[in-house]
Write a structure and sequence with these properties.
By secondary structure, the chain is an alpha+beta fold. 28% of the residues lie in helices and 32% in strands. It is built from 5 helices and 6 strands. Helix 1 (2-18) crosses helix 4.
Length: 192
């Protein structure tokens, strides 16, 4: 429950901070954008959990991880300026268009060790899980990984209609080591 609650809280924070709707930010299973995604899409998705106290029979002391994959459609970018516009835009304070790495580093800064994110996730847990588990340490930024140019199927398109070999790019920002404690008292009395 804790990692799912973190994903919901992260999605909500990203939407609020960047004024996005579900066409631009959503929880997805794979990190791919949804079929009707906007030009820029933030996909929040699970990155796994790990038990930090495997010797315990009465609780989990676990860590959870999630990722946010940022996908940008590039039909608006001239082929000869593809790398420059998306990866290394000029750093001009009046510039509206931001490169994909600018978006990734802003996202990293927003979510890394964010105690408000942890608090929001704990509120979600309390409302749905009767307070059985609790996040005790917020997620930390782990990595930014360039997924590179993405084919048409990444964006749910048809190659024959696209006419473009590189319709977009993606970068994955991973967060992890969010620690949570989960009591197993509801298992008491069961024979193993």
């Amino acid at each position: 429950m804790s990692t799912r609650a973190l994903m919901v809280a992260a999605r909500n924070l990203i939407r609020t901070t960047y004024s996005l709707d579900e066409r631009h930010c959503k929880i997805t299973a794979s990190g791919k954008p949804i079929p009707k995604a906007g030009r820029v899409f933030y996909a929040v998705h699970d990155f796994g959990e790990q038990n930090r106290a495997p010797e315990s029979d009465v609780h989990f002391h676990a860590s959870g991880s999630f990722s946010v994959t940022i996908s940008v459609k590039t039909a608006h970018v001239p082929v000869d300026r593809f790398d420059e516009v998306l990866y290394a835009p000029e750093m001009d304070s009046t510039q509206q268009e931001k490169g994909i790495y600018d978006r990734a580093t802003k996202l990293r800064d927003l979510l890394h060790m964010n105690y408000s994110l942890m608090s929001s996730a704990n509120t979600i847990i309390e409302s749905t899980d009767a307070g059985r588990d609790k996040i005790i340490k917020p997620p930390r930024w782990l990595s930014i990984m360039d997924l590179g140019p993405q084919s048409v199927d990444w964006f749910w398109g048809d190659m024959q209609q696209s006419g473009r070999s590189i319709p977009g790019v993606a970068v994955r920002v991973a967060f992890g080591a969010a620690e949570f404690y989960d009591k197993l008292d509801d298992l008491a009395g069961y024979a193993v």
